[in-house]
Design brief:
It is a single chain. Helix 3 packs across helix 6 (179-189) and helix 6 packs across helix 7 (204-215). This protein has helices at 15-29, 49-61, 76-86, 97-104, 138-145, 179-189, 204-215, 245-250, 255-263, and strands at 2-5, 34-39, 68-71, 90-93, 133-136, 149-152, 156-159, 169-171, 194-198, 221-225. By secondary structure, it is α/β, with parallel strands linked by helices. Helix 7 links the parallel strand 9 and strand 10 (221-225).
Length: 276
């Protein structure tokens, strides 16, 4: 039994992060398993060493312990090897963010517009010296993998519908791997048996299940938990001004008491509510 918590050191952890870390930590500890801490630091433009230090201090303040600490920046060879295996269903994408947004506006799907496949049929000859990402040709990948499914603790058996995500990026222009690729490769390499994370990542699991099939990797059991919400009913997130754990810690608040409150479905006064 192995779970993990995998924050990005691009800002301070908040109560929503704490809730997810506690859920993953307690799930493993209650079953005599291992809890891993993985720092997702391959975004070179936004990752900061001081945020790594704060993450470690915040989790210790909450009373959490981990059995191993790893950094994605030390695992780049694994991502490159995975990309090479996936090369038959990848294509280079030279589109800028503005071009993608403009092309996707007419037919958005869900909270994020789906990439319209602009570069799928473009001949990249003579352009590979230009900045480019690598996207998966979702139609070809789904046809190659065939019907797939995965299991979530709350939803039960889930038919994989990765095609709905469109041709997602697997290697960014400014990073050696996307979230989708890195998390799939890392979970398999680290023997993660159970993925405990927020329900906001439920749809991403369809893409991860497809990549597992394409790369011949095992599929963990998934446990997508509800999100914490603030006084306005919106999910607690950095962009919504969620309280930073570091600020609470520096004020002298009792981190273990905060953790026990989260376990019981209580948030500090004024911070909204926890969904069981």
């Amino acid at each position: 039994m192995t779970t993990r918590f995998a924050p990005s050191p691009t800002g301070r952890l908040h109560l929503g992060h704490a809730y997810s870390a506690i859920r993953a930590h307690d799930f493993a500890r209650a079953r005599g398993g291992r809890f891993l801490l993985r720092i997702e630091d391959i975004d070179g433009t936004r990752s900061r060493a001081e945020h790594v230090d704060a993450i470690l201090a915040d989790l210790a303040w909450l009373g959490l312990t981990w059995d191993a600490l790893t950094f994605q920046s030390q695992r780049l060879a694994l991502y490159e090897a995975a990309l090479e295996r996936l090369r038959p269903v990848l294509y280079p994408c030279f589109c800028t963010r503005a071009e993608i947004a403009a092309a996707s506006l007419s037919a958005p799907h869900g909270p994020e517009p789906v990439y319209p496949g602009t570069c799928r049929s473009v001949d990249p000859a003579g352009r590979m010296d230009q900045p480019h990402a690598w996207r998966i040709d979702m139609r070809a990948a789904v046809a190659w993998a065939g019907p797939l499914a995965w299991h979530d603790e709350a939803a039960g058996a889930v038919a994989c519908e990765a095609a709905a995500a469109g041709d997602v990026v697997l290697a960014r222009k400014d990073a050696p791997a996307s979230y989708h690729l890195a998390v799939t490769v890392d979970d398999a390499a680290q023997g993660v048996s159970d993925v405990v994370r927020g329900v906001d990542l439920f749809t991403a699991t369809h893409v991860h299940r497809l990549l597992q099939a394409l790369l011949g990797l095992p599929t963990p059991a998934y446990h997508h938990h509800p999100l914490l919400t603030g006084p306005d009913g919106e999910r607690l997130a950095k962009r919504h001004g969620a309280p930073a754990l570091a600020a609470m810690r520096e004020k002298g608040e009792d981190g273990r008491a905060v953790a026990e409150g989260l376990r019981a479905g209580r948030l500090p006064i004024g911070f909204g509510r926890a969904n069981a």
